[in-house]
Every structure is written in C-alpha cells, then in structure tokens.
Amino acid sequence: MIRTLFLLFFLTSGLIAQAQGLKVLITEKKSGKRVVLMAQNRTADTLNVFLMVNAEGYRRSASKPVIKNIPPNSSVPMITLIELKAEPRHYTYDLIVNSLEDAKDLVFERQENDIERIVSGKLVIFTAEACEACETLIDRLTENRITHRAFDIHEEEVIYRQFLSYIERQLTEETKIRLPVIWNKDEVIFGYDNLESIVTILSD
Question: What's this model's pTM, rounded to 2 decimal places?
C-alpha cells in the first residue's frame, strides 16, 4: 500500500487539484464561504479513498476522517469547509487510495487488529518519520521506564485509521491534530509544548 502525503496551502480561490498516482484528484470547489473538497476517480475501477483534513481559518476543522468508495470515472464530495471572517486560511490533508480489493483486505485486517484491545487502558504514541518531538518523547519514556507502545502512522496505516475513528467523539471543530498523537489510557493528546510536563502527565 502506498501512502501519499499532500501538504497544501490554499490562499486563493479557484479549482486546485493534486493526484495520487493519477488515480484520484482532490479538487477544491468554492461557493461563497464554502469550500467543498471533491474526490475524482479517474480510473475504470471503484477506489476506496481515505481523506483526513486539518484546517485553520474555517468553521469546521475537518479533523474527522472521511472514507468513501468512489465509483469509476466519477467525482464525489468528501467534506465541506466554511470560512471564518478575517482569519488567514489554510489546510493540509492526508490522502490514501486503495483498490476495492485492498479495502476488503483492510476490513479483514481491521478484524484482526481490534483497536480497542490495542489501546484500552494503555499508553500509545503515534509517530512519524522525521518527527523530532516524537523521538524525544519516546526516548524519555523509555529512559523513565514508562510502559508504552509506539506506532508509525506511515507503517501502521490501518491501525492509525482505526484509532482516528475510535476517538471521533473526542474531536471537535477546534481540534488541531499534531504529532505525536498520544493516547493516554482513556484520553487523546495532540502534541506537546513542554517535554517535562507531558512526561509527568503520562507517568501518572
């Protein structure tokens, strides 16, 4: 499975598109204060599309993952952002595209990896390559012999997506997802500013 991370900053209106392997285009359609992100399947096969948006300057931060099956040669709306007044606006998104067969495999894998069993009552850190804050935190937890489990969001895509769905009720319009994503037994923490403070919290 190939994961492509698109980092996009939209400061102007109009139609903007990016592609993953030329299979799916994410386009922006703007109408007044509303920005709709569309997923266009450019293949003759049904594709399973995962879209995760983190936005600033919009009424909806779109922190909740969206997963849809896109029919062949068709375009469907994925999520709508509503602009806030007098605020700079930009957003980033993660896009993962799978064939329908891959999606079926993910369902099977989801059954094998019950996310509640993995995280319930545990300290779990979701990391990514080149995330210095992630590495620093994990090193400190290891030094302090604080039991934890770490998952790379690139290498463990299925588990990470399950986790995002699992914490959906804890997400709000103001939620800003940043790494490391920390599951502290029964609550989620997105990133940290002070290493000593977060280690103290996680050691309780």
Answer: 0.51
